Amino acid sequence: MVKSSVLGYPRIGANREWKKTLEAFWSGKLIESEFHSQLQEIRLNHLRKQREKGIDFIAVNDFSYYDHMLDTAAMFGIIPKRFSYQGGAVPLSVYYGMARGTKDSAACEMTKWFNTNYHYIVPELDGVSPALTENKPLSAYREAKEKLGIEGKPVIVGPLTFLKLSKGYSVSETDSWLDRLLPLYVEILRELEREGVQWVQIDEPILVTKLSEADVQRLKLIYGTFAASAPNLNIMLQTYFESAERYSDIVGLPVKGIGLDFVHGFSGNMSSIKELGFPADKVLGVGVIDGRGIWKAPLREKLALLQSLAKLVPVERLVVQSSCSLLHVPVTVQHETTLKSELKEALAFADEKLEELVLLTKALAKDGGGIISELEQYDRAGQALNLSADRNREDVQHAVAAISTQHPERNSPFSERHKAQQEKWRLPIFPTTTIGSFPQTAEVRRARQLWRKGEWSDERYTSFIREQIDLWIKLQEEIGLDVLVHGEFERTDMVEFFGEKLAGFAFTQNGWVQSYGSRCVKPPIIFGDVAFKGPMTVEETKYAQSQTERPVKGMLTGPITIMNWSFVRDDIDREHIAYQLAYALRQEVEAMEQAGIHMIQVDEPAVREGLPLKEEEQSKYLKWAVKAFRAATCTVQDTTQIHTHMCYCEFHDMIDSIEEMDADVISIETSRSHGELIHSFELNTYSKGIGLGVYDIHSPRVPQVEEMTSMIERALRVLDPKLFWINPDCGLKTRGFDETVSSLRNMVEATKIVRAKYVQHSLN
Ligand code: GLN
Ligand code: ZN
C-alpha cells in the first residue's frame, strides 16, 4: 500500500509558541523543568496534528531546542574546548552557549543551510574527542510511541553531510574523522534496531552537491557499515534541494530506500531514473510536495507524475513525500484573515501540505479512481489565481519582455562616467559615507507602532521622521562625513518597506518561518505582477537633501534582494520576477533623479544567497541577476552615481559578476573577514569605485582610529586610491546611538590621517 511521509515539521508553532518559550527561558522567566515540559507539549502537538491529518511516516527527532546541526554536534559531544564541557549529558547552558555565546566564550559560527534562508550552527571539530552523549533519535521515538502510540520515523543528519558542514579539520583528516564518527552512528542505529524501529531517515542533502570519487567511497563505507551493523533497520537515505549527484552510485548503496526531490531536482532526478532505472529492491521516496514553496500543489499534475513513476517502480514501493522538511514554510494558512480570497485559496503552508500528501497518496493507491474530480476541484484555486488580473498585467509583461531581450547599459562606460562624476561632485580623496540606516532606537520603533495602530496621524508620524532626519543630517555634517544618507527611519525592513508600496505583493499576519534559533522572519509574498505605483522613497530623501549642501545618497533595495527575501510565485520563473522588480525599481530610480537625488544606492546584500547549488546553474543565475540590477539602474545620466552594497565577504568567486553590475561605487563588508577580501583583490583587479567596510557593525564595540587606518592602508596597497571610499561594513540600524556617533567620528579621523599621508606621499 502506498504511504505518505513528512521529512520534518516546522518547530515554531502556529503562534510562534516555540520561539516564545525559548526566549522566556533565556530571560530567566521559565525554570528548566517547566521549559522542558512546555517544549514537549509543543512537540507532541505537532505529532498529533500529523497523525490527525493521516500521515503514515511521521518524522521524530526533527524537533530541536535550537537547530538540528547543533543537536547532532551535542549528541556526539562535539563541543569546543572554550565551553569547558566535562563530558556526559550536555547541559542547556553549554548547548545555548554554543548557539548564542556566553559571557566568556564566543558563539559557534552560524551559516546558511544549503540554499535556504535557514541558518545552522557550524560544528567545530578541532580538539574534541567525540563520544555519544545521548541517543536523541531513540528518545524521540520512544516519546512518540509512549505518549501517543505513534510509530515514528527518527531523522538524523547523515555522516557525510555532518562532516562536510563542520569545520576545524583539514581535508586530509576527513577519513580519520569519519572513522571516529561512524561507531557513534552505529551505536545509535543498533539501539534503534533493538527497539524495533522500522524506518529511519538519514538526511544527506550534501549528495546534491558535487561529489568526489573519495566521497563516493566514503558513502560506500558509511552505508555498508550501517547495513552490516543494523541489518533489520530500514534506512531511507534522503536527499533534497536538488537532484542527486552520482545517481548510480547512490542508488547502489545498501539501503532500503532512497528519497529524491522531485520539485527542486525534478528534471535531473527524473532523467536519472528514466535513463538508469531504479533498483528493484528499494523504496523510492518521491518528494512531490514542495517543502519550500507556499503554493498549493497542482495535484492533478502531481498525480500524473507519480503514476508515470509507478510505471518504473512498483507502486507499493513508492512513498509520497514532501520535497524536504516543512521547516522552510509557515505553519498554517488557516488563521490568515486579511489576504484576498483569491490569494489565500491558492496557498498551502505546512498543515495544508499534509492534506495534499494524504490526498495524493489516496489517489495514487486507488489509481485515481473516484478522487480525480476532487483533485481537479482542488486545482481550481491555483488556476483562478493564474487567470487573475494581478497576474496578467500587460503593461508589466510588455516592459519585461523588452528587458529580457535587451542588454541594459548606461549611456557611457565607467571611465567617462567617472570623469563626469568627479567634476560634478568634487569630493575629497577617500570620500566617507555610510551604508544607509542609522540606529532604529526604541523611540523610532514606538513611533511607527503608534502610527500603524492609528494613534498617530500621518502628519505626526511624518514630522517625527523629519525630526530624526534633521538630527542625523546635522550629526553627519558635524562628524564630517562627505556623502550623507537620510537614515531609513521610516523602514522596518528593507524588503517589506518596498513590498508594501509595490503592486503584486501581499503580507501575511502569521506567515513566520525560522531563520536561525528563535529568530523568525515573515517574508512578503510576491503573488502577482510587480508594478510601480508611485515614488516610494523620494519624499524622505528629498527632504534630507533640502537640509544640507552636501550630497545625500538615496537608498533602494535591489531587485534580487527583494526577490530572494520573499516567497515568490511559481507560475513564472525567477528570472522574470527579477526583471519585473527591476522595471519597477527603475521607475523609482528615475523619480529620484528627477527629484534631484543624483547619488543612488541600490542594495543587493542577498545576491549570493540565491546562488543555485549546481555549478552549471550558477553562471546562468548570475547572468540574469546582473542584468536585473543593470536594468534597474541603467537609465540615469552619466553624472548620476549609482552605488550598490553587499554585506558578505565570500565573493571572490563572483567578482566578475560584481564588476558586470556596472555600479559606479560598491561598498562591501571586509572587517569581519579580517581582510581576506583584500587578499582576493591581489588576485583580481576591480576597476570601479569601491568602499571596503572598515569596521564591523555587528558589534557594539567602538573601533579605534589606528585599527581603521591600518585596515585602510592595507586595502590601498591593492586598490586604486582614486577609486577608494571609506565606510562601515553595513547599515547601522541595530546599533546604539552613542557607539554609532563615536565609531563614525573615529572613522572620519582615520580617514583624515590616511589622506594627510597620501597627500604627503604624492607631493614627494
Ligand atoms: N541600506 C541598508 C542599511 O543600511 C543595507 C542593509 C543590508 O545590507 N542588509 O540598513
Ligand atoms: Zn550590509
The whole-number mean of residue pLDDT values reads 95
Bound molecules: glutamine, zinc ion
Number-wise, the strands total 21
Strand content: 5-15%
Shape from CA axes? globular
Overall description:
With 764 residues, the protein is of the alpha/beta class. The chain folds into two domains: 3-386, TIM Barrel, CATH 3.20.20; 428-763, TIM Barrel (Alpha-Beta Barrel), CATH 3.20.20. The chain has 27 helices and 21 strands. It has an eight-stranded parallel beta sheet with strand order 1-10-9-8-7-6-5-2. A six-stranded parallel beta sheet has the order 15-17-18-19-20-21. Strands 11-14-16 form a three-stranded mixed beta sheet. Strand 3 (110-112) and strand 4 form a beta hairpin. Helix 17 runs antiparallel to helix 18 (458-479). The structure holds glutamine and zinc ion.
